[in-house]
Design goal:
about 400 residues, alpha/beta, Rossmann fold, eight-stranded mixed sheet, four-stranded antiparallel sheet, disordered N terminus, Peptidase S53 domain-containing protein, Tripeptidyl-peptidase_I, serine-type endopeptidase activity, Sedolisin_dom, tripeptidyl-peptidase activity
Length: about 400
C-alpha cells in the first residue's frame, strides 16, 4: 500500500507516536538533527480537497499547558525571528512597509489575532492588530461570516501568521478563511486575497493530489502578486497547487547553526515534497536546469521545514491536546517564509515565478540530503543547481525574489 494510503488508514491520532522521519520515505540519516516525533495538524485530504502541511512536535515538553492539555515549552523552543532572518540574510528590519502578505487557509481560528499578539510580543516585534490597521481577517467573501472552527487548521493559521511576522515584521497581514478545504473554496479565498489592495504575496500552506490548471488554475493566476504553495510533506509525488504553472512551489530543508561564514547549514529535508506534474506546463526558467520532468517540476525554492529543526509558534486553540508554545515544521513553514521574502523584495509587480531561475546566484544552493530514491536522481536527491526537494535553494537576501 502507498505511504499516503497507509497514513490515512492509520488515522491522525495514530501518528503521534511515529518518528517524524517515517512520515517521509527517506532514512533518518538525511536529517540535520536527531529525528523528532510529530503529528499532522490536518487529516489527509480526499479528492478535490487539500490538507494543510503543518507538523507539530510532540516531544517538546514544559510546564505551562492548561489543565488537561499536554505540556508545551514555558520558554519557546524552535527558531524565532532573529534566527530565520540571520539564516536567510534578510533586510527584515528595514523592508516591507506598506505591503501586505495574505494567508489563505480553511476554517476559522477564533484566537488568531490574540495569538499573533503573543508571538510578536514575545519576540519584540511591533504590534499587528485590527485596531492599528496591520491585521485583517475576512471570510472567503470578504466579510466576517467566518466558517466553523477547526483546531488543526487553527494551528496552521497560527504558524502562517507567525512566519510572516518573523520574516516581514513591517508587513501588514491579511488572513482569508475559506469555508472548507475544498479547492473551490480555497481558490475563492485566494481570489479574494488577490482582489485586496496592497496584497503583494499570497501563501498557501496546503496541498492535495496533482491536478490540472485547466480546472483550478484561474484561482492561482494573479500577475503582479507572488503566489506560493507548499510542496508537501510526504517526499516524492507532485502536489497541487504547488504543481501549478502559476505559483512558486516551496520545498523544505533541515536548518542548523554551523561554524561557517554563513553561520548556518542546510540539507534537503527527508519529507520535502517534490515531483513532476502530469498536467501542467513547465516554467520557462526550468528549461536550462535539467529537471528531467516533461512538464512542470517542483519545487522552485525552499526554506526550513524539518520539525527536528523547526520554528516556534504560539496557538491557544487546543487541538489533540497541544496548546500554547509549540515547535512546527512541514512545508507549511517554508511557504509563508518565501511569500514574505517576496514582500521584502518588493518586486512582485514586475516579475513572475521564473524570476528565481534567472537569479539563482542569490540563493543558498542546497547540495546534500534526500527525500527518498527516484529513477531520476535529482527528483529526490539534492545536488548542485536545481533538485526536487529544495529547488534552486534557499534565500540569501532578497536578490532572487
Amino acid at each position: 500500500m502507498h505511504l499516503r494510503a497507509r497514513l490515512s488508514a492509520l488515522g491522525i491520532a495514530a501518528l503521534a507516536a511515529i518518528p517524524l522521519t517515517v512520515l517521509g520515505p527517506a532514512a533518518a540519516s538525511h536529517a540535520a538533527a536527531s529525528p523528532a516525533k510529530a503529528v499532522r495538524s490536518c487529516t489527509t485530504a480526499k479528492a478535490g480537497y487539500a490538507s494543510c502541511q503543518a507538523l507539530v512536535r510532540t516531544d517538546v515538553t514544559g510546564t505551562v499547558a492548561p489543565a488537561g492539555a499536554k505540556p508545551d515549552a514555558a520558554t519557546p523552543s524552535g527558531f524565532g525571528p532573529a534566527d530565520l532572518q540571520s539564516a536567510y540574510n534578510l533586510p527584515s528590519a528595514t523592508a516591507g512597509s506598506g505591503r501586505t502578505v495574505a494567508i489563505v487557509d480553511a476554517y476559522d481560528d477564533p484566537t488568531a489575532e490574540a495569538d499573533l499578539g503573543v508571538y510578536r510580543s514575545q519576540f519584540g516585534l511591533p504590534a499587528c492588530t485590527t485596531a492599528n490597521g496591520c491585521f485583517k481577517k475576512v471570510d472567503q467573501n470578504g466579510g466576517t461570516s467566518y466558517p466553523r472552527k477547526d483546531g488543526g487548521w487553527a494551528q496552521e493559521i497560527s504558524l502562517d501568521l507567525d512566519m510572516v511576522s518573523a520574516i516581514c515584521p513591517n508587513c501588514h497581514i491579511l488572513l482569508v478563511e475559506a469555508s472548507s478545504s475544498s479547492f473551490a473554496n480555497l481558490g475563492a479565498a485566494v481570489n479574494r486575497a488577490a482582489a485586496t489592495p496592497g496584497v503583494v504575496a499570497i501563501s498557501n500552506s496546503y496541498g492535495g493530489s496533482d491536478a490540472s490548471d485547466a480546472t483550478y488554475g484561474s484561482y492561482y493566476n494573479h500577475p503582479g502578486i507572488a503566489v506560493t504553495a507548499s510542496s508537501g510533506d510526504n517526499g516524492y509525488g507532485a502536489s497541487y497547487p504547488a504543481s501549478s504553472h502559476y505559483v512558486t512551489a516551496v520545498g523544505g530543508t533541515s536548518l542548523s547553526k554551523a561554524s561557517t561564514s554563513r553561520g548556518w547549514s542546510e540539507t534537503a529535508w527527508s519529507g520535502a515534497g517534490s515531483g513532476c506534474s502530469a498536467y501542467n506546463t513547465a516554467l520557462s526558467g526550468q528549461a536550462s536546469f535539467g529537471t528531467g520532468c516533461a512538464k512542470r517540476a517542483e519545487a522552485d525554492v525552499s526554506a526550513v521545514a524539518n520539525p527536528s529543526t523547526g520554528v516556534a509558534v504560539y496557538d491557544s486553540t487546543a487541538y489533540q491536546g497541544y496548546v500554547g508554545w509549540m515547535v512546527f515544521g512541514g512545508t507549511s513553514v517554508s511557504s509563508p517564509v518565501i511569500a514574505s521574502v517576496y514582500a521584502l523584495a518588493g518586486n512582485t509587480g514586475s516579475i513572475d515565478n521564473n524570476y528565481p531561475y534567472t537569479h539563482s546566484s542569490s540563493l543558498n544552493d542546497v547540495t546534500s540530503g534526500s527525500n527518498g530514491s527516484c529513477t531520476t536522481s535529482q527528483w529526490c536527491t539534492a545536488r548542485t543547481g536545481w533538485d526536487g526537494p529544495t529547488g534552486l535553494g534557499t534565500p540569501n537576501g532578497v536578490g532572487a525574489f
